[in-house]
UniProtKB/TrEMBL annotation:
A GO BP annotation: AMP salvage
Region annotation (NMP) ranges: 30-59
Keywords associated with the record: ATP-binding, Cytoplasm, Kinase, Nucleotide biosynthesis, Nucleotide-binding, Transferase
Record's comment describing the protein's domains: Consists of three domains, a large central CORE domain and two small peripheral domains, NMPbind and LID, which undergo movements during catalysis. The LID domain closes over the site of phosphoryl transfer upon ATP binding. Assembling and dissambling the active center during each catalytic cycle provides an effective means to prevent ATP hydrolysis.
Quaternary organization: Monomer.
Keyword Kinase: yes
Organism whose genome encodes this protein: Candidatus Abawacabacteria bacterium RIFCSPHIGHO2_01_FULL_46_8
Membership in a protein family: Belongs to the adenylate kinase family.
Binding site for AMP: T31, R36, K57, L58, V59, Q92, R157, R169
Domain of life, per lineage: Bacteria
Pathway given in the UniProt record: Purine metabolism; AMP biosynthesis via salvage pathway; AMP from ADP: step 1/1
GO CC entries: cytoplasm
The name this protein goes by in its record: Adenylate kinase
Compartments, as annotated in UniProt: Cytoplasm
Length: 220
């Protein structure tokens, strides 16, 4: 079963995705990472996506499902995936769910619950690895100036340095992404995790919730 990780900005879903992927051998399709890689390219699409990201807006709704399908096409039937940050709106979901069904991929959505105030506190301080092949994220109190994974110099993302951009992204999440989550809750395909806690506590809650749904075995 594949997992869909959604949560308001700063919820730490990317960190949880990496922890789960490392322990259970899942692959991660990270929407933001894929788009940041495209934004690095000096192409019309790259410049368009860069401007959209810098403004704190969403990319065209039909683009993430298309890129996700290219990713899925390369997988074996037993390879499980964490889709981090997609689908983010109802029109996008209407393309994404049929794509998963086309490849006979079952899924469970995980919503990481966090208040806007805590999200802003986390985002305005966090550091990011600028290497598009890495994109590791570090908390504000990170003592090293370099990425522990690849050695790149850590920096703030443009869209994290601007408070107005952060608030705009949060507003979009509430207005456009929450309806996707609510729809899946009605269908019994969504669970919620309290992301206000420490990384370790959130991960423990995540493991217990996934085990209760039969998605993972905690003996692994």
């Amino acid at each position: 079963m594949d997992l869909i990780f959604l949560g308001i900005q700063g919820s730490g879903k990317g960190t949880q995705a990496r922890l789960l992927a490392d322990q259970f051998g899942l692959l991660i399709f990270e929407t933001g990472k894929e788009f940041r890689k495209i934004a690095e390219q000096d192409t019309a699409l790259g410049r368009q996506i860069k401007a959209t990201i810098d403004a704190g807006k969403l990319v065209p709704y039909d683009l993430p499902p298309r890129i996700a399908e290219e990713f899925v096409q390369q997988l074996g039937p037993d390879q499980r995936v964490i889709f981090d940050g997609v689908p983010r709106e109802i029109p996008q979901a209407e393309l994404f769910w049929p794509m998963l069904a086309k490849y006979k991929r079952d899924y469970l959505l995980v919503n990481f619950l966090l208040t806007e105030a805590e999200g802003i506190r986390r985002l305005t301080g966090r550091l990011n690895c600028p290497n598009p092949q890495c994109n590791a994220i570090y908390p504000a109190d990170e003592k090293s100036a370099t990425c522990a994974k690849c050695g790149s110099t850590l920096e703030k993302r443009v869209d994290d340095a601007d408070l107005a951009s952060i608030k705009q992204r949060m507003s979009i999440f509430i207005k456009q992404t929450m309806p996707v989550i609510e729809e899946q809750k009605v269908l019994g395909r969504a669970i919620e995790i309290n992301a206000q806690q420490s990384v370790e506590a959130v991960y423990q809650d995540l493991l217990e919730a996934l085990a209760a749904r039969g998605v993972i075995s905690t003996n692994q």
